[in-house]
Task: structure prediction
Amino acid sequence: MKESILKGYELAKEYYADMGIDIDKAIEICDSTPISIHCWQGDDVNGFEKKEGALSGGIQTTGNYPGKARTPKELRSDLDVVLKHFPGEKKINIHASYLEADEFVDRNKIEPEHFKKWADWAVERDLGIDFNPTYFSHDLSDDGTLSSKNDKVREFWIEHGIRCRKIGEYFAQRTGKVCVINHWTPDGDKEFPIDTLAPRLRLKDSYDRIFDATRSVTGVMDGIESKVFGIGLESYTVGSHEFCMGYVMSKRSDHIMLTLDCGHYHPTEVVSAKLGAVYAFADHCLLHVSRPVRWDSDHVVCYDDELRAIMNEIVRLGKVKETYIATDYFDASINRVAAWIIGLRNTRKALLNALLTPVERLKLLEKEGDTTSRLAVSEEYKTAPFGLVWDYYCAKKGVGVGLEWLSDVKKYEDDVLSMRN
Ligand code: RNT
Ligand code: ZN
Result:
């Protein structure tokens, strides 16, 4: 390690010790907290089903930067570059549409064997695996999935959900780590429906049936993700926030939790402000870390106020272990590998920053009613020498300090990505 990095570490250690913070302990907690890497940043949410089809379900990647992964092998090779430049415990988050089979296998026919190569790859790297049923980008998903009024269509998607939970169990068994499954359906309407209740009752029934049919599954946690609207489905969303929150809370289940995606609320609402309320009723929740710009645009995650506020909140609530952190964005306008690394490093960085907050001191001031000091202390630590701790942590983990990662990614672009088109 460079002399200057070590010097910086010593300086920061002293500074934070004065605030009552042990930076080594903060690094240790940060490092052991899993962050789940969404596989879909590498290929614009295409997946590897042997069937042509456009991305649907009201989500959209924008940009046409060259070099996207066209095969599972390419995607995993790109992910290996990401893994090199992002510190701490990692998981890989796969969608059902990223299966591998010689011939087309429909969503209601998927089996653990179609994900064996992903599991082998993850086990070799000691990564956990998270999973997602793909309830979009399919011939049968254009007019509702789990809430469809067409029984055959609904049965098809229930079967998909059931199979996904079994595949989740397979991943948990292969990796020895919990598999977090996220259930998100795009179901909704471009115009205001007359009957807003019936689709929700069907969605509720579908989730019930998926969970009832897979009661014996172990090692799996299930997130239910809400949304405000999708493109083309602007007026009505079946799985709205109230629906999903109501569903999760009414189940009182030890494995069903709410998923909060940063882009899935009205533009002035923030996830950081919701966590304290959710945790009044829940033991766990799943975060989809994303950056909405005026809508659910899924921009690359930046080290911005809201990301820091989210991480601060889970630290202050004492819910770092209980909160499953996953990234969810898709930017096709810049080098996709760099997009991954930038967002993932920022997510980890914000977590470390939050862990270096004098939380105990602030809580005490609040308890004593000294709101003046509470504000003064809160403001003061904002300019603490956090960057020195981050650089030391990155150096210690060998993932590149500062922009060291960028030249490696540029080289990978020249040698590999640019040859793909
Ligand atoms: C869509 C949801 C969902 C997806 C992924 C691909 O609005 O955020 O989580 O982004 O499942
Ligand atoms: Zn999401």
